């Protein structure tokens, strides 16, 4: 039924307006853990980008070598590879320029020796060698303004489409699989309207860049760079295979990379063996993994194992291959992999706080390093283990957080390495609030007051398992002549005399509970603010 036949009521209009306001509020309140997750993803994407770029450089180097050895045979394919490299570099630089300009517009500052990066800072490394510190990772305004209003996203879409068309034009019509792979990786089509979201149509640009925080947009742009680099890799490997297809006894070639480790810490050296593997699909080798023969398809075997616990594990095998002369050659191999537990670290921005006198649970993640290999130390306190977590117990108060530093070390290959440090504030447990009948003052019915046993000391909005017990308090009641009568209790319970006075109260009478003292689980005594009630 059309809207003309079913007009909105004033109530429906009000509900719609409230939904719009709520959506805007939610969009503005980007959770800190979400921002942190985007930072981690962006760092991982940039590391992958470097790895893919290194692999592509190796392929281009092989083009140069092949061209030097046989210019006539290689010329056609090298010229096409040169086109791919030129177009790829241009698009990668364009995306990098978008990231840099958007970061600067959002207030990013250049890192200098005088103002170096902290261990937990989010930064952007530009193509011209600068490093920008991102100060507003949750900025929602600049990305939308720059990418949507100023139509930078539209320009990016056009550049991606032009790049995709260039790559597709270099692929033979018979290689449908590669064409589909390129089209899928570099698609720019608008998403389908989601009925559950009201059927609103979105464009490729708005789906990715409208009302997204800066860190999410930077991460998405890094992902597009990865897609471009992967497409480049697929195409130049395809072009190179066209040269070598008839030059080897083997009928299939493939690039193989064996790294020295599947986990590298910042500052460590990444080492990998890169080589060209040749396969003969007319003859399948025999492959044994951990001493057992496994099925082989297209010259390859797949090793699968269900992981059940974290740690570093190794596996090995043997490849048996028959040469044209009928001799069996053995090729052994060994690999390691690391299993980590899925986890998420949640922390509120600028809330690095410990409480003195409490066992403060402390969770730490070492970026994939097993927890048993992590060590936590601190100044102004002690650290102990409790299962997979740590317990922090500060010694002295440190409100500014200048004297309390937590350091995390890791045992990697038998070497103790510092992963990072952070400063924390040490505060005292907050004062409790006096409660009677679950209230900290206000109006109360006389009948309700009479059934209560006494005064409680409550820590409001405090999640630690810490309690206060009232040790004394005084009830003050005004008499008809304007005098104030005092009735003391040396415990947390109302005395019989106080109860008797409650029975004599009339509506609108006022009572005050003052001189309240409470003892905490840590043995310290606190003075609690008085509370008052009016009898209904």
From TrEMBL:
Residues 246-341 form the Gliding motility-associated protein GldM first immunoglobulin-like domain. Residues 430-536 form the Gliding motility-associated protein GldM C-terminal domain. Residues 33-241 form the Gliding motility-associated protein GldM N-terminal domain. Signal peptide: none annotated. It comes from the Bacteria. Residues 343-427 form the Gliding motility-associated protein GldM second immunoglobulin-like domain. InterPro entries: GldM_Ig-like-1, GldM_Ig-like-2, Motility-assoc_prot_GldM, Motility-assoc_prot_GldM_C, Motility-assoc_prot_GldM_N. It holds the Pfam family GldM_2nd. This is Gliding motility-associated protein GldM. It comes from Mariniphaga anaerophila.
């Amino acid at each position: 039924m059309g809207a003309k036949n079913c007009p909105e009521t004033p109530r429906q209009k009000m509900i719609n307006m409230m939904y719009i306001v709520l959506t805007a509020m939610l969009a503005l309140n980007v959770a800190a853990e979400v921002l942190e997750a985007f930072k981690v993803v962006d760092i991982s994407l940039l590391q992958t980008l470097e790895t893919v770029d290194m692999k592509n450089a190796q392929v281009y180097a092989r083009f140069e070598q092949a061209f030097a050895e046989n210019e006539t045979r290689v010329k056609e394919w090298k010229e096409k590879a040169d086109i791919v490299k030129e177009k790829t570099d241009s698009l990668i630089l364009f995306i990098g320029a978008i990231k840099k300009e958007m970061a600067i517009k959002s207030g990013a500052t250049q890192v200098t020796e005088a103002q170096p990066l902290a261990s937990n800072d989010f930064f952007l490394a530009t193509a011209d060698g600068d490093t920008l510190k991102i100060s507003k990772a949750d900025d929602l305004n600049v990305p939308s303004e720059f990418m949507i209003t100023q139509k930078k996203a539209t320009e990016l879409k056009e550049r991606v489409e032009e790049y995709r068309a260039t790559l597709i034009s270099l692929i033979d019509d018979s290689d449908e699989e590669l064409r589909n792979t390129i089209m899928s990786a570099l698609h720019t089509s608008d998403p389908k309207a989601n009925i559950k979201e009201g059927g609103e149509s979105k464009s490729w640009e708005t789906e990715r860049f409208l009302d997204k925080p800066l860190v999410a947009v930077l991460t998405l742009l890094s992902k597009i760079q990865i897609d471009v680099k992967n497409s480049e890799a697929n195409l130049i490997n395809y072009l190179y295979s066209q040269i070598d297809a008839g030059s080897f006894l083997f009928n299939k070639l493939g690039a193989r990379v064996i790294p020295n480790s599947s986990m590298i810490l910042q500052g460590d050296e990444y080492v990998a063996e890169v080589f060209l593997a040749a396969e003969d699909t007319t003859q399948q080798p025999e492959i044994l993994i951990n001493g057992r023969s496994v099925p082989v398809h297209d010259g390859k075997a797949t090793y699968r194992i269900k992981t059940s616990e974290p740690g570093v594990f190794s596996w090995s095998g043997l490849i048996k291959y028959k040469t044209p002369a009928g001799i069996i050659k053995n090729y052994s191999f060994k690999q390691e992999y690391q299993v980590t537990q899925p986890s998420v670290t949640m922390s509120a921005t600028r809330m690095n706080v410990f409480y003195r006198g409490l066992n403060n649970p402390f969770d730490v993640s070492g970026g994939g390093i097993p927890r048993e290999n992590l060590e936590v130390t601190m100044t102004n306190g002690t650290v102990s283990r409790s299962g997979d977590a740590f317990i922090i117990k500060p010694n002295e108060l440190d409100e500014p957080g200048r004297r309390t530093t937590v350091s995390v070390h890791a045992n990697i290959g038998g070497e103790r390495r510092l992963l990072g440090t952070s400063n924390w504030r040490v505060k005292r447990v907050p004062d409790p609030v006096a409660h009677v009948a679950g209230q900290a003052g206000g109006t109360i019915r006389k009948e309700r007051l009479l059934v209560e046993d006494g005064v409680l000391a409550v820590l409001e909005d405090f999640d630690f398992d810490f309690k206060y017990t009232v040790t004394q308090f005084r009830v003050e009641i005004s008499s008809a002549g304007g005098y104030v009568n005092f009735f003391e209790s040396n415990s947390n319970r109302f005395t019989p005399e106080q109860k008797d006075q409650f029975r004599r109260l009339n509506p609108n009478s006022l009572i005050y509970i003052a001189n309240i003292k409470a003892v905490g689980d840590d043995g310290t005594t606190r003075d609690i603010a008085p509370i008052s009630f009016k009898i209904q």
